[in-house]
Amino acid sequence: MLQLQVMVAQQADIKPGKLWNPLGKLHTELLCFDAQAQVDMADAALWLYGIAFEELQRHIAVECREHAQVLACLWEHSSCLTELRCAVQYEGLLAQSRQGFDSLADQRTYLKGQIRYKAGA
After folding, report:
1. Which of 26, 48, 90, 117 is at a distance of 20 to 30 A from 9, taking alpha carbons?
2. φ, ψ for residue 22 (rounded to 5)?
């Protein structure tokens, strides 16, 4: 995981005065990896965003502690929504897979019955 975090950090195009994008070119390259690598890359990117939000929160806290608390709350809610979205998406994929498996099991049972019928005739 640490290697992926370093890789994402190196690929992030961070220059003064430029809008920061922690993923850089990785969002297009991400599709070339297997599922676990994609999850690891997403975790690494979220790790970078977390660091960025913590740094912003520190800078904002110097001016206004309440604004920093609001920013921290926004980040936590955003993280929770991301995790919830992933869980809901995973549950949907799992339900589709289960339906497909049940359909295949039903077809197998039907075909076994057809073979027994034809073998007995």
Report:
1. 90
2. -60, -25
- Measured distance CA(39)–CA(45) in Å, rounded: 10
Look up the pTM and report it. Answer: 0.51
pLDDT tens, residue by residue, 87-101: 888 888 888 899 999
Q: Where are the domains of the chain?
A: 1-63, 70-121
Residue 33 burial (10 A CB sphere; 0-12, 13-18, 19+): middle
Are the C-beta atoms of residues 43 and 37 closer than 8 Å to each other? no
